[in-house]
Specification:
The chain is an alpha/beta fold. The chain contains eleven helices and 14 strands. A hairpin with a 2-residue loop joins strand 5 and strand 6. Helix 10 packs parallel to helix 11. It is globular. The relative contact order is 0.12. The chain binds phosphoenolpyruvate and manganese (II) ion. The site of manganese (II) ion has 5 residues, from loops.
Length: 370
């Protein structure tokens, strides 16, 4: 059961509702405060045997906007009843992840050296973008492959982000201790930027990592769907993050493994963008680089990576995660799928066209009604 309070409800209102909730036997109470640009929304979750709890116990309390009985299993991330788009998303330093716009996170799959970080961030910023990706901790399939520069590169990555005005860096973590390393490095650098903690496909069911990402509330999380598990299992994994207290999560589609001799590195699953948007309140990201995994183009001259990213955007994705490298031929990880810096303005224009198509389709749908 979720008790939704009126926007900007004060601590007295929250306390009264929590007290009434705690009077019910076996019920655990979790309060989530979502601070938007103009309003703060508070939701109080009652977890446990809520069938016995009457809605009337709450509907008449001052400050209670509504009481939602959650039948489905995605209590925190699920889209309940007929919730509309206003329940989607969050804000990170003025960058909104709420479906009203699209953000391109293009950058290094793996940080290799300072010069490449500098060049990549300069190219990103030149396009007016304030978001990028920078992999420091790399979960590689083989132990003999490059494992990432780890915490040693964090100080120059954050310093250069400050220099170029980069506001958010998507950065993968593979163990809970790395969250502290990242936070310590951000603090040491004077917090010139922030990090969106990325949980990769190989850790999609690493429950201790999911819980750790949920227990800290400072950094938002980018969860990448498990490549060999069901969508339902991936959504349950996200519920681990949210139920620990961090609702600022983006759900990323990145392709899935099949044994069908796929022409791409993974089977592109961006047809699931509308599904995730329907089932949850999460903003959706698509990663065309790790799903396609190669630089091939169609005879029309458009790279497959552009095509599938566009497919995600026209389906309403809020974010795209793309590998970009100044010299893909010397990249230490995933060079073949990296776009080059001169391709970035083209990619950005391509995204703009696709977003416009989505907005037109949205207007048309509104005109046509349900
Ligand atoms: C990545 O984004 O660098 C990555 C390893 O992705 P995935 O977890 O989707 O394979
Ligand atoms: Mn990669």
């Amino acid at each position: 059961m979720i008790i939704l309070l009126e926007p900007d409800s004060g601590p007295d209102v929250v306390k009264t509702v929590e007290t009434v909730a705690r009077q019910h036997k076996g019920i655990t109470v979790k309060t989530q405060v979502i601070a938007g640009e103009r309003h703060t929304v508070t939701e109080i979750y009652l977890l446990g045997p809520t069938r016995e709890v009457s809605e009337d116990a709450f509907t008449h309390l001052p400050g209670v906007a509504s009481v939602v009985r959650v039948a489905r299993k995605y209590r925190m991330i699920g889209r309940h009843d007929d919730e509309d788009e206003t329940s989607v998303g969050f804000d990170v330093d003025g960058v909104k992840f709420d479906g009203s716009t699209f953000h391109l996170f293009a950058g290094l799959c793996a940080v290799d050296n300072r010069e490449h970080v500098d060049q990549t961030m300069a190219a990103v910023r030149q396009q007016g973008l304030v978001t990028t990706r920078m992999g420091a901790y790399k979960p590689r399939t083989s132990p003999y492959d490059f494992q990432g520069r780890g915490k040693d590169c964090l100080s120059y990555v954050f310093e250069l982000a400050g220099k170029h005005g980069i506001k958010i860096i998507a950065m993968e973590i593979t163990s809970p201790a790395q969250i502290d390393e990242i936070q310590a490095a951000l603090d040491a650098a004077g917090n010139p930027t922030t990090v969106m903690l990325q949980i990769g496909t190989r850790n999609a069911q690493n429950f201790e990592l999911l819980k750790a990402a949920g227990q800290q509330k400072n950094l938002p999380v980018l969860f990448k769907r498990g490549m060999g598990i069901t969508l339902e299992e991936s959504l349950n994994a996200v519920e681990y993050i949210a139920s620990e207290g961090n609702p600022r999560i983006v759900f990323c589609l990145r392709g899935v493994k099949t044994h069908l001799g796929d022409p791409h590195r993974n089977l592109v699953d961006f047809g699931h963008v509308p599904v995730v948007r329907r089932l949850t309140r999460l903003p959706v990201c698509v990663d065309p680089s790790h799903s396609v995994g190669r630089p091939d183009r169609t005879p029309d001259g458009i790279p497959d990576i552009f095509h599938v990213l566009g497919q995600g955007i026209v389906a309403g994705a809020s974010m795209g995660l793309v590998d970009l490298h100044p010299k893909p031929e010397v990249a230490l990880c995933d060079g073949p799928q990296a776009l080059t810096l001169p391709q970035l303005p083209w990619l950005q224009q391509h995204c703009g066209i696709m977003r416009e198509a989505y907005e037109k389709a949205l207007t048309l749908a509104q005109e046509k009604g349900s």
